[in-house]
Design a protein that fits this description.
alpha/beta, 5-stranded mixed β-sheet, 8 helices, 13 strands, 26% helix, elongated
Length: 282
Amino acid sequence: MGYVLLGHGGLVVDPAVLAPTPEWVAIPRQTTIRFYSDIGQGLLIGTDQFDGWEALQTFGEPLDSGSVTYNMTLTSMWEAWEGLLRNGPRFGGHTLVMPGINAPDPVLMCAGTPGTCPVTPRQVLESDARHHCDGILGQCSGDLYWVACTTIAGADPAVVEALLAGTKKNVALGRSPEWTPNALHHHVVDEANRAVLEHAADGEVLDFVLGGSTLVIGPGHSRDCLAYAENAIDSAAGQILVHRDGAPTGSGRLVVRGLPADRLDLAGAALARVSGLPVRFA
C-alpha cells in the first residue's frame, strides 16, 4: 500500500529555508506521486467536506522514476485532524502522513542536497540513485498521494513571479530537464504544422511557440513537444497571419509576428519545410 500526504502544501522560495536543498528533485524507482492539486491551486474540497479516502478517488496521471517534482513542503493541517480524522482516518489501507502528527512540521519533499539525493531522472534510471534524507522521498516509497492545497510563501510577489518564470524555463512538473525531441518527434511536429497551415483560411491568425529546435504551430501537437517548446530557455511565442491573395491554397504569403531577431532563421527554415508560401517577418 502507499502513503497519503495530507496537509497544507507550499513552494518555499526563501533561500535561507531551502538552501542547500535543490529546487526540483527526481523520483526514485518503485515510487509514484499523484498530485491532487497544482501549485497555486486549492483542493477541490475543503476540510468541512472532507470525509477521508472516499472523497479522493480522482487523481491525475502519476509521476514516476522518469520524472521530476518541485521540492515542495508540507505543513500541518490540524483542523482536519482535530475535526474529522482522529476518530476515523480510513484511507483504503494507505498510511496517512500528517506533519506535526507523525512527521516533522514542516517536511520537505527532499531534505537532502544534490550530493546526497538525485535531481535528474538519469541518475535514477542509470544508477538507481535514491534519496538519503529525512524528506518525504527519503522516508516513503510506493504510491504517494499529495493531498494538499499548495501555495507559494517566503517572498514578495516580484520574487515569486521571478521564481516561477525561471522554473518554467528549466523544467515542468513531471518533465525531465534533459528531455529533447529526436528526429521522429520533429517529423511529427512538421506534419502537424503542415496540416494546420494547409487548412488555414485567408486572413486566419495562427498562434505558435518556438523553443529550442522546435516550432509548434496551432493545435494538434503532442504534450511532450509542446512542453519542450514552451519550457525551453529561448522560448518565444507569436502569431502567423495567413494571406491567400484570394486563392484557397497554393498562393499568398505568411507574415510572422513576435519573434526576436536571433530566431528568424530557425523559424524560416521550419516554415520552409512545411509550406511553399513565402515568409515575411514583421
